[in-house]
Amino acid sequence: MSAGTIPGLLPDGESPFDRVTRVLTEQPFSKLVGAKVGKVEPGRAELTVENRPDLTQNNGYIHGGVIGYLADNASGCAASTMLPAGAVSLVTSEYKLNLVRPALGIRAMARGEVVKAGRRQCVVETRVFCEDGEGAERLVAICLATLAYIYPGDL
Questions:
Q1: Does pLDDT of 117 surpass 80?
Q2: What is the dihedral of CA 11, 21, 84, 153, to 10 degrees?
Q3: Where are the alpha helices (DSSP H) in the chain?
Q4: 13, 21, 105 from 56: Cα distances, Å
Q5: Under DSSP, is residue 102 helix (H, G, I), strand (E, B) or coil?
Q6: In DSSP terms, which residues pair with 44 in a beta bridge?
Q7: Do the Cβ atoms of 93 and 146 come closer than 8 Å?
Q8: Are 110 and 70 in contact (CB under 8 A)?
Q9: Fold topology of 16-154
Q10: Domain residue extents for the chain
């Protein structure tokens, strides 16, 4: 199976940061919302989206769908840093998102952290914050996600 066969396939020797950046740039929706990769390390990943008028709902808050996207993708990025040997990709199998306050700020940031990585699945907790422009952050959402690792025989 070649790297071009499976979207997001992870080339040998690719660093977690390079992997996350490459996969994000391959996703049309990530380009649409303007997602950027922040800090990436084993078991952790951060993504940001700048607030723009076309990403807001009627009251000017960042739309809940954008917050859900950030939580889901930051979870996947964190899980991808813990990819088991032989796995070629991963997919979200479930996530629960609690929106705890309106997403108001100049940007939203999602920080995913692996809770438990196994051979077949990974559980990640992701918190989404909004920044006010002066460096202060407020929690706007909490996500608990389960991601399934994909092996060549799974397809």
A1: yes
A2: -60
A3: 16-26, 28-33, 64-80
A4: 39, 25, 11
A5: coil
A6: 41, 113
A7: yes
A8: yes
A9: Thiol Ester Dehydrase; Chain A (3.10.129)
A10: 16-154
Q: In the sheet where 121-131 sits, what is the strand order?
A: 36-41, 44-50, 107-117, 121-131, 137-150, 89-99
- 99 strand-pairing partners: 141
Residue 140 has which token pair? 């706007």
Task: Measure Cα distances from 55 to 48, 67, 91, 119 in Å.
Answer: 13, 10, 25, 36
φ, ψ dihedrals at 57, nearest 5°:
-95, -170
Q: How many residues does the chain have?
A: 155
Cβ proximity of 37 and 17 under 8 Å: yes
pLDDT at 28 exceeding the cut of 80: yes
CA dist 48 → 66, 77, 108 (Å):
11, 12, 6
* Structure confidence by residue, pLDDT tens digits, 37-62: 999 999 999 999 999 999 999 999 99
- Spatial neighbors of 129 by CB under 8 A, at least 6 apart, are 108, 109, 110, 111, 137, 138, 139, 140
- Token pair in block for residue 56: 């807001």
